[in-house]
Design a protein that fits this description.
Layout (H helix, E strand, L loop, with lengths): L6 E12 L4 E9 H8 L6 E5 L16 H4 L7 E3 L3 E4 L3 E9 L3 H6 L7 E8 L11 E7 L3 H13 L1 H4 L2 E8 L13 H5 L5 H4 L4 E6 L6 E2 L2 H12 L6 E6 L2 H14 L2 E5 L15 E5 L6 E5 L6 E3 L6
Parallel strand pairs: 8-9, 8-12, 9-10, 10-11, 12-13
Antiparallel strand pairs: 1-2, 1-7, 2-6, 3-4, 3-7, 5-6, 13-16, 14-15
This protein binds flavin-adenine dinucleotide (FAD) and FE2/S2 (inorganic) cluster.
């Protein structure tokens, strides 16, 4: 995938739609140098948004559990991946999927079409495709979906080059914590096209919920393990890409090791500077599979790491 030059750019919001209790989809547009810089944004890279001047929603629409946190000042930019990036002639359109979890994401809900935003990016490394793979498995936990949806689009758009078959596995604690707009009808689900967001790229998807309220009853990694056992695909032909809570990524790394499958994990560490200076996002990594470890910066050396290198 290609390299782009990072910088600080002005973006303009074109829509900000609520798609679930706490889930929103924000669309931003970049022009001029920003459009050029983000045109080659790789799936798995991220951007840092300045939300310090964004207004709070009215008190009555603030969820009760966030009332105290809502008043906190937003000193640091916040990192976000994109679900989709489309480069047109003079502009680049980027789509974000976000979950309201604290003061910054709460403020994001008040962004309206026409509002200006300062964006730093593209940041981080993004996913890569090793030679010789035939099947890509995208394994999502909760809000880990944005970079993997972007990757699904990338694989579909570049099928001629990669030739990869792609299947997505999406898990959450319960059905309403799956950050998707809706599920498809029963027939589509029987065919495996459960989630419209993946189906639009021709990618089959399997759902797993911890409480069994949708799809497989159990962890998404267990759903994947069962699928792998039944598939009979040779491990060397498979590459797994995963993003989600760290406990899930740790299980993912274990499973990939047991099955001898290559696996790339996108880690969502808390970040401050976003460019490798403050060391707040340090990740302990093994050196060439040995017991020796070094600290790498999630924002600069990641957020995508080989599953074999991360010490959980
Ligand atoms: C590379 C990267 C890409 C991301 N992409 C997305 C995305 O596409 N959509 C999205 O909704 N969120 C994404 N996030 C997470 C997002 O940055 C945080 O949710 C956001 O910064 C929270 O800001 P806040 O002020 O609303 O809440 P805060 O008060 O900062 O946090 C609220 C709660 O969320 C937890 N939290 C905050 N940030 C993280 C994190 N990085 N990892 C784990 N827990 C965290 C905190 O511990 C706290 O409990 C991404 C994070 C990273 C590092
Ligand atoms: S966020 Fe500052 S070093 Fe990563």
């Amino acid at each position: 995938m290609s390299e782009s030059v990072k910088g600080v750019f002005k973006a303009t919001a074109s829509s900000n739609k609520r798609i679930g209790k706490r889930f929103y989809r924000l669309r931003i547009e970049l022009v001029a140098d920003g459009a050029k810089a983000f045109a080659d944004f790789n799936p798995g890279q991220f951007a840092e948004l300045d939300l310090s001047h964004t207004a709070l929603p009215p008190e009555e629409s603030i969820p009760e559990d966030l009332l105290d946190a809502a008043e906190r000042k937003i000193l640091l930019r916040r990192p976000f991946s994109f679900t989709n990036v489309t480069a047109e002639k003079n502009r680049t359109i980027a789509e974000l999927l976000y979950c309201v979890v604290g003061p910054a994401t709460l403020r994001m809900t008040t962004i309206s079409a026409g509002d200006s935003l300062s964006v730093i990016g593209p940041l981080g490394n993004g996913f890569s495709v090793p030679e010789g793979k035939k099947t890509a498995l995208l394994v999502v936990g909760g809000m880990g979906v944005p970079p993997l949806l972007h990757l699904a689009k990338h694989f579909t758009a570049n099928y001629q080059t990669t030739g990869l078959d792609v299947i997505a596995f999406a898990g959450a604690k319960t059905a309403n914590q799956l950050p998707f707009e809706s599920r498809l009808d029963e027939i589509s689900q029987q065919l495996g096209f459960s989630l419209p967001e993946f189906a639009k790229y021709g990618v089959e998807s399997l759902i797993a919920t911890d409480d069994g309220s949708a799809g497989y009853h159990g962890f998404v990694t267990d759903c994947l393990a069962e699928w792998l056992s039944k598939s009979g695909l040779p491990a060397k032909d498979i590459i797994i890409y995963s993003c989600g809570p760290e406990s899930m990524l740790a299980r993912m790394a274990e499973l990939a090791k047991d099955k001898n499958i290559d696996c790339q994990l996108s880690l969502e560490r808390r970040m401050a500077c976003g460019i490798g200076l403050c060391q707040s996002c340090a990740v302990e990594c093994r050196v060439n599979g040995s017991n020796e470890t070094v600290y790498k910066m999630c924002c600069k050396d990641g957020p995508v790491f080989e599953s074999t290198e991360v010490v959980f």
